[in-house]
Amino acid sequence: MNETAQQILDVAQNLVRNRGYSSFSFADISEQVGIRKASIHYHFSSKEELTRELVKRYRMAFQQTLKQIERSNSDPQAQLRQFLSLYRQGLSQSQMCLCGILSAEMAVLPASVQEGVRAFFAETQTWLQTLIETGASTGCLQPRLPPKDEASLLLASVQGAQLIARASEASESAFDRIADQLLASICPTP
User: Fold this and answer.
1) Residue 40: how many CA atoms within 13 Å on its side-chain side?
2) Which residues contact 141 (CB under 8 A, 6 or more apart)?
3) pLDDT tens digits for range 1-40
4) Are 100 and 86 in contact, with CB atoms under 8 Å apart?
5) Domain coordinates of the chain in residue numbers?
6) pLDDT of 60-69, one tens digit each?
7) Of the CATH numbers 3.40.50.300, 1.10.357.10, 1.10.287.110, 3.40.50.1000, which one belongs to the domain with range 54-184?
8) In Å, how far are 16, 22, 41, 125, 162 from 179, measured between CA atoms?
């Protein structure tokens, strides 16, 4: 993929993470990139193709980040904190999780984009489930539910925490309060 296509994806990602799918257009991208709308169509024939590629790229980057978290620390509690910090970092940039914000518009997304969003959540939930299983086996995490259900609850909670925090005047501290409660619910007290 060439530099212009990457720049188009970067701008589109910022727009979607700030506004959502329905509130961005090729005109918005062309204005920010400084190219004509027709030039965007040269790289991405439709909004569907662009968004599908955007979700694919986001999924790959997110999975790479999760692998880095695994490599950087063997402690499941520390990995869980790093996972939560990914969502907090997005808030510090006034952005939502790309797939989280797209999931709010599932009914209007093209089927191919819906598929990518579902895959993101399935992959992330599987990663969390493995983390919870590992933490439970070593005693450093104490899930209240079976690991698969705990992973679903945790993922839903962190996505929801981002939404609630975004609506708060002090978004980062609102997110921190929720994240602290999430950690307290699964991490044993010393």
Assistant:
1) 25
2) 76, 77, 80, 131, 132, 134, 135, 186, 187, 188
3) 799 999 999 999 999 999 999 999 999 999 999 999 899 9
4) no
5) 54-184
6) 999 999 999 9
7) 1.10.357.10
8) 24, 29, 41, 17, 10
Tokens, residue 162: 């981002």
Gap between the Cα atoms of 139 and 133, Å rounded: 10
Report how far Cα 82 is from the mean position of its chain's Cα atoms.
13
Q: Identity (one letter) of the amino acid at 80? A: L
Q: Show the 3-state SS of 73-122.
A: CCCHHHHHHHHHHHHHHHHHCCCCCHHHHHHCCHHHCCHHHHHHHHHHHH
Amino acid sitting at position 143: P
